[in-house]
Structures are given as C-alpha cells and as structure tokens.
C-alpha cells in the first residue's frame, strides 16, 4: 500500500530523529513487526510510561506479545516517565500516519493539544492503564484500565476490618505513586474516603515514591526518622512497598508485624513478600491489558463502535491466598 511505503520511509527518518534527541528511551521507537501479512497489518504507535516497576515490565510484555498474536505491527516507545517524551512519541506516530495510537499517560493533565493533533490527523487514540483529565472525551475512543479509586477503597476496607476491635489511634504513612498520575490521585482518594469515616485512623505522613523501589526505600527511611510511632504503611504499588521493607528492616523493625503493610499491584515479588508475611494485604491491579487493547484497536480501525470505558477485572490477596496463587502467577 502506497501509504505503507511512505509511512515506512517517514518512520525510518523519524526513528532516527527520535533516537538523536534521545526520546526513544530504552524501548526505542523501532517497530516490533506484527505477525500479520506485513503491508496489510494494522500499525499501532504505542507510548509506554517507562520501566519503573515490575507492573510496567509485565504490562509492556503483555502489549508486545498481544500485538504479535493479533498480527498488529507495533511501534513502541519508552518515555522514561517523562510526559514530554510521550508527547514527542505521539507526534512522531502522527507523522508516520499510523493507523491507531495507544498510550498510558504518565500524568493526567496536559494532553489536549497533542490529542487534538491526532484527532485532526484522523488517527484514533486509545488510553490504556492510566486516564487523562481532558474535558473533551472525543479526543480518545476508549479508556482500558483499572478503577484506581476502587483499589484505594479495597485497601482502606482491609485496614478498617483489621482494626475493627481497636479504639487506639492508628498512625499511617503513605507512599504515593507518581505525582499527578491517575493511580496516585485515585488510590489516595479511595483509601482516604474509606478510613476517613473513623477518626482513629491518622495519615501522619504522605509523600511520593514515584512507583519505584529505590525511592520507596528512601522516603520510608525518612518517615522512620521523622515519625516516632508508625503502625501502618499504605504503598500505592508493590515496588515502593518492597523498598520500604528494606528501610523497615534496616531500622531493626519487623515488616508485617511492627508495621503492617498494604500495597497495590500483586506482581510476583510483592506476592512473595506477602506469602512470607512481610506484607499483610495486596490489592491486585492487572497489567495484562494487551489482548483487550488489540481487540479494541481492531474494532476502532474498522470503524466499529467501542465502549468508552473498559474496566479490568482484579481481586485482592491475603497472606494465605498469596501462598496458593504464587505457583500459577503469570507475572
Ligand atoms: C497502574 C499503573 C501503576 C502501577 C505501578 O495501572 O499505572 O504504574 O500500579 C506502575 O506499579 O508503575
């Protein structure tokens, strides 16, 4: 197809340009050829947040494998958690005249301009994993991902149940996800809504750990020095919780006992710590969005209507449930 040939030429030039200004990130903007018939396959431009956590690694694997299975040609870029890199990647995909753009917005705000450019170029956009706060929902065809407010509520509900027979004050520290991101905003809100019903729960410190293990350890070290009496840690993902465990043990305390820990995601390392009793409860957030994303992409490119919102199925795990689930965990 003529469009395809011109696209490939532009893609080559654009890829070089992206590499030159270093915005290709570790994933590069090179194509992962789909398993389809080459020239006739759908071309998807995908801008990934980064590689900050075990969840993200599993999500990238799911998207890349599902593209291959679906015969979709994937052009993948890793933004290294920088919004400007995602905006550059989306503009590059518009120049390449891809058939569809999908991305996980690192933060909620600041997308209207580039999404309008995609709309003006008649390239449909699908949000996956995280949401944007654009008032104009015509800027994207669908949002596939978890209900993060619900995840925060589940974390809060476990804590309320855990302390239902106590009237003592419960001092909580919170490791928030990336500042401005939908999961950080919504997991914080859902948790606060549930525990706010009982005055004994007090969030004595709350700070971002940017969803990484290293930052989670660093911030938890600071919490331990500043807070004389911490009963609970609520971490917005497993990776920050695992970093915090290192800090807690370094301070001579027992994670899961001296300080109870609730996290979100349920990646393998988190589930192992849960089974080992170092974490007390995990709210699952599934990264396996690839197959649903590719189904949505095919429908959107074919001009079929798709749901504006697709919420992913997920559950919760106690220590006992983690022991049972670990052997069959995919990620
Ligand atoms: C949630 C996802 C979050 C994970 C983190 O859908 O955006 O980003 O909870 C990841 O582990 O870094």
UniProtKB/TrEMBL annotation:
<keyword id="KW-0732">Signal</keyword>
<dbReference type="InterPro" id="IPR028082">
    <property type="entry name" value="Peripla_BP_I"/>
</dbReference>
<comment type="similarity">
    <text>Belongs to the bacterial solute-binding protein 2 family.</text>
</comment>
<dbReference type="InterPro" id="IPR025997">
    <property type="entry name" value="SBP_2_dom"/>
</dbReference>
<protein>
    <submittedName>
        <fullName>ABC transporter substrate-binding protein</fullName>
    </submittedName>
</protein>
<feature type="domain" description="Periplasmic binding protein">
    <location>
        <begin position="46"/>
        <end position="304"/>
    </location>
</feature>
<feature type="signal peptide">
    <location>
        <begin position="1"/>
        <end position="19"/>
    </location>
</feature>
<dbReference type="Pfam" id="PF13407">
    <property type="entry name" value="Peripla_BP_4"/>
</dbReference>
